[in-house]
């Protein structure tokens, strides 16, 4: 296989799962394999102290064990004080990541870098240099960068990066499974019933944060170029439905009409956010934005969602009847996950977020379509998988929260203003709901930026539009909106139930 056909993910997989001697042999036979997988002494990208017969997956297993225990303890702690388990998972990540950084623990220090490390690995692959050197070149000169470079150059660096690759991919799978489950619990016909309301919520939830964010940067940084203003506005349009979906699931409130409006609006919000991001990126890169590009992105999104749901509702029951005759063990589980992964891949291939495809798969897989399969409902079959990998995403998100960001001059004030704008913009979206619904719950449910906001911010940083201070402020905003949503949503739901009684 030509080495040019291999990408970074495959390299990382080789690094994790192959014996050191085998991997070194591959590097000899394919010299185009980047030097990222060799440390400064030429040792294979694995634990240099491990014997040739040690299992290279062992460090990953230990990391997953620690994450699982932390998630379980954090979730139990939160439930005991009447809060959703997801908040405990996030806080365990925050505490573990920042404590590990303070103590100089290498593995968690690397894990907390998140998208930053992904960019470093990409730089190393593209420039055929070591990952430590890539970090030194790609990241700003700071104490944090110097500490990261020191770890990456040391004996723990290669193992830490391989663990990061594995845990990061697993957390992304966890989000896909979570949104698939949310889709399974969402009745498509009821979604259609709230479709127009969800559209209004999504439009207001994009326009208001965009204007507030751009206006805030214009006031606080009067000399900043226009690209900074509109890119920050674009970042504030993001909505991470994963946090809200988990809270509704923890509280057993997924059947509320407000939950369906939020989930429907989040899908539309994702499409609108991508359009805004594409337009802003086009302005930054070329200095001009064409209506044709915006129309093309919109058409792709409409085609995918309409086609996935329309064709899926027609094809799914027919495929299920034919496959059920094969009497393959666990076929219902395989069929459901297979469709979720396929549609998630198709969504990504069309330039949309993969979670949109997973949610669409859940929508079309109504249990009535799967009645030809024997056994438990698909939701129950997926429960063990959910318990295993979904918490990884929330713990990892907490790990990536850097409390030292508050110490940078001016960042705290900037972060506070952006957070207020982010919250106010999404609360305004709730006003688009009919008066008889709980508008506050809808607004709060649209608040978290989560991984979506971080992805938008990382794109801005890569384009040179978002500087380090602004990026730190955005990270703090993402952290606060993400952490505030679960307890606030619990309060608004409890208030709504009390008002009905």
What do you see in this structure?
By secondary structure, the chain is mostly helical. It folds into two domains: 3-41 and 50-168, no CATH class; 174-500, Up-down Bundle (Na+/H+ antiporter like fold). The chain has helices spanning 8-17, 20-29, 58-80, 85-103, 106-111, 115-127, 131-138, 143-153, 157-184, 188-193, 195-220, 226-236, 241-250, 257-286, 291-324, 331-349, 354-364, 378-399, 411-430, 439-445, 450-462, 468-500. α11 crosses α14 (257-286). The relative contact order is 0.13. Residues 1-53 have low confidence and may be disordered.
What percent of residues are in strands?
Answer: under 5%
Per CATH, the class of the largest domain reads: Mainly Alpha
Run of helices and strands: HHHHHHHHHHHHHHHHHHHHHH
Portion of residues in helices?
over 70%
Q: Which structural category do the helix and sheet elements fall into?
A: mainly alpha
* Oligomer status: single chain
Rounded mean pLDDT is: 76
| Total individual domains | 2
* Total number of strands: 0
Distance between the termini: 67 Å
Cα radius of gyration in angstroms: 23 Å
Low-confidence stretches: 1-53
Largest sheet: none
Looking at the structure, the CATH topology of the largest domain is Na+/H+ antiporter like fold
Number of helices: 22
The geometry reads as: globular
Which CATH architecture of the largest domain is right?
Up-down Bundle
